[in-house]
Amino acid sequence: MMETILIVGSGAREHAIAAALARSAQQPTLICFSGALNPGIAELCSAYGIGSITDATAVTVFASDYRATLAIVGPEAPLAAGVADALWQRGIAVVGPRQSLARIESSKGFARELLAKYCIAGNPFFQRFDSLDGLEAVLERYPHQHVIKDDGLAGGKGVKVCGDHLLSVEDSRRFCKELEMLGHPFVVEEKIEGEEFSLMSFCDGRTLRHMPAVQDHKRAYEGDRGPNTGGMGTYTDADHKLPFLTGEDIAEARAINEKVAAALEAECGMPYQGVLYGGFMATRSGVKLIEYNARFGDPESLNLLSLLETDFVAICRAIADRTLESVPVVFSPRASVCKYLVPEGYPDRPRKGDVVTLPTDVPTGVSIFLSAVNVSDDVLVATGSRTVAVVATAASIAEAETACERVIGEIPGPFFHRRDIGTAAAVAQRIEHMKAVRRACD
Ligand code: AMP
Ligand code: GLY
């Protein structure tokens, strides 16, 4: 079957998705619909529609006009808005869950309650609130160890951690009051300690194919300081486990994803078809869930798709047809490091309009993916968010880190990135931190 595949979204994640599809021996026709023109994606596509990606009608009309046979939805907002449902209704198969299933990401309380209802391990203590009733008892129980989360999608701004963003119980009360006044339900949960990692699985509702574990770096500055961002960079190791994790940690995280996929089908009465992304923390008492996402991580997907050896079109088709059982999914046994270049001032007051000059040749094993850029008078200009991502794969994390830095060194301009991601010193620090966390249980 000759596929025409619609990609919804236009960040570096969608650029990596387009590049992975374009590598397929099946030579699919690619089309993209998004709010902005990404020149890296446009180069790989035969049609590009600009519009609101949460407008289900606009997306499906574009998909039908170009006779899409399959769609891949990159970001969470269109999934939460029901774009997958609308595409299926038009007879277009989708990689990305329907609205009801996407609540695993769009409602933090739904995710926690699903785990509790189906007796799935991994929840810390949590309570969901619609008002301030009962809040004092929880704050008294966990005065220094709580996290408050807006129940809905808040673009990464809805989570406040005690001791970090919340410096007193009064701060916590104030944040809860703010959420109550906005009419937003919220979740208060126990703050847990350990090392975070992402474990994503391709899922057709029946079969899960797990990807290598990845670690993201959410803070803007080196040493995990500064404001939270969408993610400044990521790494994976050649054995597909991270150096601070045990085989048991990976097995626990995989088991949680498997049980959650089954619970979602039982709860929503339809199969979860897409990427199930567990955001976990390895703690002294096993693996705990931080959050679920209903899509590929960004930047995690840049590492994973660069390592993917299996034909990505075949995987997407198998997710849509629920035949993943017959598709073995293989990732190259190499390490990878991804770093984002971002404008000065990012994330709070980013400069906009700086020219982005990319090297004409990059060595084998290194790729550049475009994110928040535009083309103006034939030059690339930064539009103010994460700008370009450089991904390197190599035999070890250290070699991938060096290769990544070498290419970043060839990109001039007032951009910054985190030099520490994937360095031997930063990785060793995480191993030491995890050892200290595990020792604390003896
Ligand atoms: P989320 O948007 O749920 O991923 O939360 C953003 C960040 O807050 C996570 O990456 C964690 O660093 C932190 N966080 C969220 N929940 C918890 C928790 N229960 N304990 C400790 N840290 C947390
Ligand atoms: N890397 C974090 C995310 O994709 O949500």
Ordered list of secondary-structure elements with their pairings:
Elements lengths: L3 E5 L3 H11 L6 E6 L4 H4 L4 E4 L5 H10 L4 E4 L2 H5 L2 H7 L3 E3 L7 H4 L1 H10 L8 E4 L5 H7 L4 E5 L8 E3 L7 H14 L3 E5 L4 E9 L4 E3 L4 E2 L2 E3 L3 E4 L4 E4 L10 H22 L5 E10 L2 E8 L6 H8 L4 H10 L13 E9 L11 E2 L9 E5 L2 E4 L2 E4 L5 E7 L2 H12 L6 E2 L7 H16 L3
Parallel strand pairs: 1-2, 1-4, 2-3, 4-5
Antiparallel strand pairs: 6-9, 7-8, 7-9, 10-11, 10-16, 12-15, 13-14, 15-18, 16-17, 18-23, 18-24, 19-22, 20-23, 21-22
Helix pairs in contact: 1-11, 3-5
Bound molecules: adenosine monophosphate and glycine (GLY).
The site of glycine (GLY) has 6 residues, from loops.
Describe this structure in words.
The protein has three domains: 4-96, 3-Layer(aba) Sandwich (Rossmann fold), CATH 3.40.50; 125-190, ATP-grasp fold, A domain (Dna Ligase, domain 1, 2-Layer Sandwich), CATH 3.30.1490.20; 195-428, D-amino Acid Aminotransferase, Chain A, domain 1 (2-Layer Sandwich). The protein is built from 14 helices and 24 strands. With 442 residues, it is α+β, with helices and mostly antiparallel strands. The longest helix has 22 residues, at 247-268. It has helices at residues 12-22, 39-42, 56-65, 76-80, 83-89, 103-106, 108-117, 135-141, 169-182, 247-268, 300-307, 312-321, 397-408, 424-439; strands at residues 4-8, 29-34, 47-50, 70-73, 93-95, 126-129, 146-150, 159-161, 186-190, 195-203, 208-210, 215-216, 219-221, 225-228, 233-236, 274-283, 286-293, 335-343, 355-356, 366-370, 373-376, 379-382, 388-394, 415-416. α1 (12-22) links the parallel β1 and β2. α1 (12-22) packs parallel to α11 and α3 packs across α5 (83-89). The chain is 32% helix and 26% strand. Strands 12, 15, 18, 20, 23 and 24 form a six-stranded antiparallel sheet that branches. It has a five-stranded parallel sheet with strand order 3-2-1-4-5, with helices on both faces. The chain is globular. Glycine (GLY) binds at residues 216, 231, 293, 297-298, 300.
